[in-house]
Amino acid sequence: MFSWQMSLRIFLGIITGLATALILHACQAEPNALNNGSNVPSSAEANKVAVVSKSQDQPQDKPKKTELPPATKAIVDSVPNGLYDPPRGDIRLAVISDLNSSYGSTDYEPEVDKGLSLLPFWQPDMVVCSGDMVAGQYPSLTEDQIKAMWAAFDDRIAAPLRKAKLPYGFTVGNHDASSARGISGKFLFARDRDVASKYWNAPAHDPGVEFVDRFEFPFYYTFKYKDVFFLTWDGSSDLIPKDKLEWVEKSLQSPAAKAAKIKILLGHLPLYAVTVGRDEPGEVMANTEQLRAMLERNNVHTYISGHDHGYYPAHKGKLQLLHTGLLGSGPRPYIGSNMPPRKTMTIMDINFSSPELTTYTTYDMKTMQKINYNELPKSISAHNGIVLRRDVKMEDLSASERSNCESRLGANLCSA
């Protein structure tokens, strides 16, 4: 028979074993809790942006991967051979543009939702937009209709980004707040500009960027993210007034700009056209060469633009030109190309140790396949000059390619 002392020893052994198991389980569970952040989105939040929030004061480490929301995982899993996950740089930007649909629309194309749903996969530090967030610039639209468009933008895009604590740097486009003026000198779409200004200056709609100079926000302002200095100008029409250009130069020479490792400009109209239907004066910035010289003089690395509805990574002189593709309606074909148009989204990784500083990973938003440079035209010649694909030099063009440009534009406009 067991003695009472033996029974007591067995009982104490069982209690000790249970306590040890509980301690080991707690030790194993704690790292998972840290990796998963504060919470994992439930199925009810599947269509909301769920990104690990970041502080600009944290070291530039890779964000910890979290469990993907169901909507994100469904898209990723649907891509044959998996969705390409680019190597991460020191800073990552998700670059979007031209989100709008038809005039007055309060709805968005499926690709807009798709792009937002994929943010947890890419985990950008910031989202930047090169304009056309709503579908204005139509004289018959009432103030209530314009306000309704901005309310829809807030509900569908801005509010989810705020909830995810993702900063949103942007420039206004011609459909947001056109700066086109009539013969009298007054804004033709003053109502659009007034509603846009009131929307963005409402405290509830703070875009979450670290402002350097609000100047005439949301039309002209500067902000920074860690070692990146951003300047936004009002490229919603082709002409920037002289006093605003003076502010631009002064801002690019400010202490904050000089302390940055890279300067990026955001504007809607590009310097040079790359797509059909945009190849004419008024569809690109006026005084192109003077603007480019000023930007190069002030060491701007990249001009991110929209409006052309076609992704094209280009360079001209010392300036990198990212013509951002669209997520909204109306993709356009390239000038002089038979390539079918497509909707795209770009992830820009900034690598401070790399000579190129930036790397683009751009996706066809229908197939979710990565677009390689060699799929795109080596150069594009528009009415105001030639631009070369980012990886191409002038000597890489054949004699016939150079001759074709010169016969159309003249030698002066066919240099890069």
TrEMBL record:
Pfam family, one: Metallophos
Swiss-Prot/TrEMBL keywords: Signal
Compositional bias of kind Polar residues: 36-45
GO molecular function, one term: acid phosphatase activity
Region (Disordered): 36-72
Gene3D superfamilies: 3.60.21.10
All copies of domain Calcineurin-like phosphoesterase, residue ranges: 91-311
Range of residues in the leader sequence: none
InterPro entries: Calcineurin-like_PHP, Metallo-depent_PP-like, PAPs-like
Protein name: Metallophosphoesterase
Organism taxonomic ancestry: Bacteria, Bacillati, Cyanobacteriota, Cyanophyceae, Pseudanabaenales
